[in-house]
Design a protein that fits this description.
heterodimer, A: 267 residues, 9 helices, 0% strand, B: alpha/beta
């Protein structure tokens, strides 16, 4: 019994330590972020940020688009199966539009980016740690947080909301294709219904979520990299851990945000 | 006045004492070699000298500033006057050799890019890598990587050059070339050089003084002649390559008894 309690206590302390480290890292990065901004910051950091934006955003575009199109089809088909029974097939449009702008667009994008870029952050920083590159930055009087993390975080904050908008669009287009093939609904008419269903409030809450998800993915991925100890095997463990933890935290944050918006934002 | 002063330095990892009350003075312009076997604590001492780790107690004073207690900006200022070449070279794999050398110049100076290019070429020419400046680190041999790391360490014309195991993993000819390079650099730039090594021929070639570390304490600090003439058994064992009592029957029996004792305690 004592061992179990000891184990629970140790795990709790470890988790608190992890959350504390995430917070410290977040504040340190926010302080260093101005150096990564264009015009006012260091131009090499901004160049690194643009490079990261291409990797996080542009390179993920085909994957995120395909995921959104498939999910759009699935949502429309599943919704249509039930709604057809009540003669309410046109509500499929509302289902797809509201589902994507509020929930699926940000969540699908975050899960895709977490798998692609969260693991890449952990692997890159973990390898830099193992090969003493982070130490060499420190001895050159450069801060790894500013040099490595700030461009990644800023790039994630810009790229992930953009990907979310594209994901929303792809999902809604997939719904339109389904409606066209199943009911011969004209694309222009579908577009008009979409414009009636889409609410600015939903788009904004979705984008707020995507900013929170970007923060989670960038910071969990980078923290896992910074916490690498030992050799290359621990780099492998850190990448797995980055994906698992960031996906879990993204879903947890989604639940929290959805609850907050449900109780505070009135339609 | 010594450029580096170490006073009563104690370092512990998880309660295990790695450095035990070290005292050492390094004079400006001298080459100090930290010599010792594996696990003697020489790399740990080096990390203390460049301020990468905090000691349990004691002081490390570099250019009159106690780097164990100073503010982060002050530590950065001290670090700008130290050039470090790590054992693994720690060149940034995503940057060419020239960009690696240019990095500290771009970050810490406001020089025109044409001037930086010229300075990079000069530093690379000094270490014999001027023709390889466009190559990536993974395209270099082990010896070239180490020379690239030395060129980067020289980028800001440091007062102190720190080299961690410069000849480790290199064939004797390349190792001898690096020794000659260190002598040349010291003569050309009038720097204080600290070299960590366990290679005796290298140590005796480049050192003005040698500090011999044995299990976290200095067994002897002196000139090459004083080290050669020493009758201290720990120094003699190292110089005469006498193995420690690892593989005789009595030692194995002692370890076995210890193991049985711990098993009984657990049961």
């Amino acid at each position: 019994m004592a061992n179990v309690l000891e184990d629970i206590g140790r795990r709790t302390l470890d988790e608190l330590d992890y959350v504390g480290s995430l917070n410290i890292q977040l504040w340190s990065t926010l302080r260093a972020m101005k150096r990564a901004l264009p015009f006012v910051g260091n131009r090499y950091r901004w160049q690194a940020t643009v490079q990261q934006m291409l990797q996080i955003g542009y390179d993920a575009l085909p994957m995120v688009s395909m995921m959104a199109i498939c999910t759009g089809f699935i949502l429309a088909m599943q919704g249509a199966t039930e709604l057809r029974r009540f003669g309410a097939l046109h509500y499929v449009i509302d289902l797809v539009v509201v589902g994507f702008t509020r929930e699926l667009g940000p969540l699908l994008t975050a899960i895709a980016v977490s798998g692609r870029s969260g693991s890449a952050f952990a692997a890159e920083i973990g390898t830099m740690k193992v090969t003493e590159e982070l130490d060499s930055l420190r001895v050159m009087a450069l801060e790894p947080i500013e040099f490595v993390l700030a461009p990644k975080y800023l790039a994630a904050l810009i790229s992930i909301p953009c990907l979310t908008v594209i994901s929303n669009t792809c999902g809604i287009v997939a719904g339109g294709l389904f409606m066209f093939f199943s009911t011969r609904l004209a694309p222009l008419l579908y577009f008009r219904y979409v414009m009636e269903s889409v609410a600015l409030r939903d788009v904004i809450t979705g984008l707020i979520k995507s900013l929170a998800f970007a923060t989670i993915i960038a910071h969990v991925g980078c923290l896992e990299g910074f916490r690498v100890r030992g050799g290359p095997d621990s780099v492998g463990r850190s990448t797995t851990s980055a994906v698992v933890k960031s996906t879990f935290l993204v879903i947890l944050a989604d639940a929290v945000f959805t609850a907050i918006f449900y109780f505070t934002v009135k339609p | 006045m010594p450029i580096i002063s170490i006073r009563d330095l104690v370092v512990e990892y998880d309660g295990r004492r790695v450095l035990d009350g070290l005292n050492l003075d390094v004079e400006p312009g001298e080459t100090m070699v930290l010599l010792g076997g594996s696990g003697s604590g020489k790399s740990t001492l080096l990390r203390q000298i460049i301020g990468l780790e905090q000691p349990k107690s004691g002081r490390v004073i570099v250019k009159g500033i106690d780097i164990t207690r100073c503010s982060p900006p002050k530590l950065k200022e001290v670090r700008r006057s130290i050039g470090v070449a790590f054992q693994s070279a720690a060149l940034f794999n995503s940057l060419s050799v020239a960009d690696n050398v240019a990095l500290p110049l771009r970050e810490h100076t406001r020089l025109e890019s044409s001037i930086i290019d010229l300075m990079v070429w000069m530093k690379l020419a000094v270490v014999g890598l001027a023709d390889s400046r466009k190559l990536l680190p993974q395209e270099l041999s082990g010896g070239m990587k180490k020379r690239g790391a030395v060129a980067r360490a020289l980028a800001l014309d440091p007062e102190i050059l720190v080299l961690d195991e410069p000849s480790a993993g290199l064939d004797p000819i390349v190792a001898a070339e690096l020794d000659e390079l260190i002598l040349l650099l010291k003569e050309a730039f009038q720097m204080t050089v600290i070299v960590v090594t366990h290679e005796m021929p290298s140590a005796f070639r480049i050192a003005d003084r040698i500090a011999m570390l044995h299990r976290g304490i200095f067994s002897l600090v002196g000139t090459k002649d004083e080290i050669r003439a020493s009758q201290d058994p720990r120094v003699r064992h190292f110089l005469d390559r006498v193995p420690e009592d690892l593989a005789n029957a009595a030692t194995v029996a002692t370890h076995f008894e210890k193991y049985l004792h711990t098993q009984e305690i657990h049961q």
